Amino acid sequence: MSQEIVQTSTGSSDVFILERTPFGKLVLTNAQDERFEGVVPVRAFPIQAPEEGVSVVDADGHEVAWIADLGALEPSAQELLRQELTRREFMPVLQRIEAVSSFSTPCTWTVQTDRGQCEFVLRGDEDIRRIGTDHGLLISDAHGIHYLVPDQFALDTHSKKILDRFL
């Protein structure tokens, strides 16, 4: 699948072609005919502004393209980039806290997420961070997986009581 992307956010036209190889890798070819294999899209602000600011980086982590607004691209280009972003990002949304093993850390949390029930170990209170202005939280487990709580006040009473003990 090959898709030409035209970007005009900086006032000048940056044209590049993004395609997927038969092996599933993304390849970006820029206007200067430079070809970058194994590129990866990375959101600049994945929680607060997931549709704005997507950097396309090469295998060494150097930016080779910038997409200011993902929604401004053609639908097929959006689809290709969103597929890759979904593969790369894994952030379950925490819907309910079923139980915690203790109120001192480290402790094991049993939670319900948008991807099913799971357990994780919370190493310390500092692994619960406030994000954004909408009462959101980001909880990191011992393995580095982040669980998103879009609005802590929208949780059920039982979950809020448990969460209050750690905040």
Describe it.
The chain has 167 residues and is mainly beta. It has two domains: 2-88; 94-166, no CATH class. The protein has two helices and twelve strands, in the order E-E-E-E-E-E-H-E-E-E-E-E-E-H. Strands 1-2-3-4-5-6 form a six-stranded antiparallel beta sheet. The longest helix is centred in the middle third of the chain and has 14 residues, at 75-88. The radius of gyration is 20 Å and the shape is elongated. The termini are far apart.
Identify the notable features of this structure and list them briefly:
167 residues, mainly beta, 12 strands, 44% strand
Structural class: mainly beta
Alpha-carbon distance between the two ends: 47 Å
* Count of separate structural domains: 2
Order of strands, main sheet, comes to: 1-2-3-4-5-6
Describe the secondary structure blueprint for this structure.
Elements: E1 2-7, E2 14-20, E3 26-30, E4 35-43, E5 52-57, E6 63-69, H1 75-88, E7 94-100, E8 107-113, E9 116-122, E10 128-131, E11 136-140, E12 146-149, H2 157-166
Short description:
With 167 residues, the protein is mainly beta.
